[in-house]
Amino acid sequence: MFFMSTTPEAVTEAEVLNQLITDQQAGFSEEAARAILSLRFGPAAINRMNELAEGNRQGTLSEADRGVLEKYLRVGHFLNVVQAKAHVCLSATAQADS
Protein backbone atom coordinates (compact mmCIF):
# COMPACT_ATOMS: atom_id res chain seq x y z
CA MET A 1 0.00 0.00 0.00
CA PHE A 2 1.25 3.49 -0.83
CA PHE A 3 1.15 6.37 1.63
CA MET A 4 2.08 9.87 0.56
CA SER A 5 3.30 12.57 2.89
CA THR A 6 0.70 15.15 3.79
CA THR A 7 2.84 18.26 3.31
CA PRO A 8 3.90 19.23 -0.23
CA GLU A 9 7.51 19.91 0.77
CA ALA A 10 7.81 16.42 2.28
CA VAL A 11 6.82 14.60 -0.93
CA THR A 12 9.79 12.79 -2.42
CA GLU A 13 10.46 11.97 -6.04
CA ALA A 14 10.23 8.29 -5.09
CA GLU A 15 6.68 8.82 -3.81
CA VAL A 16 5.69 10.59 -7.01
CA LEU A 17 7.31 7.84 -9.10
CA ASN A 18 5.51 5.19 -7.06
CA GLN A 19 2.23 6.75 -8.25
CA LEU A 20 3.35 6.18 -11.84
CA ILE A 21 4.60 2.64 -11.36
CA THR A 22 1.80 0.77 -9.62
CA ASP A 23 0.84 -2.88 -9.30
CA GLN A 24 -2.29 -2.24 -11.37
CA GLN A 25 -0.27 -1.31 -14.45
CA ALA A 26 1.35 -3.69 -16.88
CA GLY A 27 4.85 -4.50 -15.78
CA PHE A 28 8.19 -4.76 -17.47
CA SER A 29 9.00 -7.64 -19.76
CA GLU A 30 11.28 -10.25 -18.21
CA GLU A 31 14.18 -8.99 -20.34
CA ALA A 32 13.58 -5.36 -19.34
CA ALA A 33 13.22 -6.26 -15.66
CA ARG A 34 16.53 -8.15 -15.71
CA ALA A 35 18.24 -5.24 -17.47
CA ILE A 36 16.89 -2.79 -14.88
CA LEU A 37 18.08 -5.03 -12.04
CA SER A 38 21.58 -5.07 -13.54
CA LEU A 39 21.91 -1.26 -13.31
CA ARG A 40 24.62 -0.27 -10.83
CA PHE A 41 26.71 2.78 -10.09
CA GLY A 42 30.31 2.34 -11.20
CA PRO A 43 33.34 2.55 -8.90
CA ALA A 44 34.02 6.24 -9.66
CA ALA A 45 30.44 7.22 -8.81
CA ILE A 46 30.51 5.14 -5.62
CA ASN A 47 33.77 6.79 -4.57
CA ARG A 48 32.30 10.23 -5.25
CA MET A 49 29.14 9.43 -3.27
CA ASN A 50 31.28 8.20 -0.36
CA GLU A 51 33.35 11.41 -0.44
CA LEU A 52 30.19 13.51 -0.47
CA ALA A 53 28.62 11.49 2.33
CA GLU A 54 31.74 11.84 4.47
CA GLY A 55 31.83 15.60 3.87
CA ASN A 56 28.18 15.76 4.82
CA ARG A 57 28.80 13.79 8.04
CA GLN A 58 31.69 16.11 8.94
CA GLY A 59 29.70 19.23 8.08
CA THR A 60 32.29 20.38 5.54
CA LEU A 61 30.21 20.03 2.37
CA SER A 62 29.92 23.12 0.17
CA GLU A 63 26.50 24.12 -1.14
CA ALA A 64 27.53 22.97 -4.63
CA ASP A 65 28.59 19.57 -3.31
CA ARG A 66 25.42 19.32 -1.24
CA GLY A 67 23.47 19.78 -4.48
CA VAL A 68 25.49 17.01 -6.12
CA LEU A 69 24.84 14.70 -3.14
CA GLU A 70 21.12 15.42 -3.36
CA LYS A 71 21.16 14.51 -7.06
CA TYR A 72 22.86 11.20 -6.32
CA LEU A 73 20.28 10.54 -3.62
CA ARG A 74 17.36 11.30 -5.96
CA VAL A 75 18.75 9.06 -8.68
CA GLY A 76 19.37 6.33 -6.11
CA HIS A 77 15.78 6.56 -4.86
CA PHE A 78 14.52 6.46 -8.45
CA LEU A 79 16.62 3.37 -9.14
CA ASN A 80 15.35 1.68 -5.96
CA VAL A 81 11.72 2.21 -6.95
CA VAL A 82 12.21 1.04 -10.54
CA GLN A 83 14.19 -2.01 -9.40
CA ALA A 84 11.49 -2.86 -6.87
CA LYS A 85 8.96 -2.82 -9.71
CA ALA A 86 11.29 -5.04 -11.75
CA HIS A 87 11.44 -7.53 -8.86
CA VAL A 88 7.64 -7.57 -8.69
CA CYS A 89 7.41 -8.19 -12.43
CA LEU A 90 9.90 -11.08 -12.29
CA SER A 91 8.06 -12.61 -9.31
CA ALA A 92 4.78 -12.39 -11.18
CA THR A 93 6.36 -13.99 -14.26
CA ALA A 94 7.83 -16.81 -12.15
CA GLN A 95 4.46 -17.46 -10.48
CA ALA A 96 2.69 -17.47 -13.85
CA ASP A 97 5.20 -20.01 -15.18
CA SER A 98 4.69 -22.33 -12.18
Quickly count the helices.
Answer: 4
Order of helices and strands: HHHH
State the shape.
elongated
Uncertain segments are 1-5
How many separate structural domains?
1
SSE layout:
Elements: H1 13-20, H2 30-37, H3 43-58, H4 63-97
General description of the model:
The protein is mainly alpha-helical. The protein has one domain (29-97). 68% of the residues lie in helices and 0% in strands. It contains four helices and no strands. Helix 2 (30-37) packs antiparallel against helix 4 and helix 3 (43-58) crosses helix 4 (63-97). The chain is elongated. Residues 1-5 have low confidence and may be disordered.
Name the features.
98 residues; mainly alpha; 0% strand; elongated
Can I get a quick summary?
Helices cover 68% and strands 0% of the residues. The two termini are 26 Å apart.
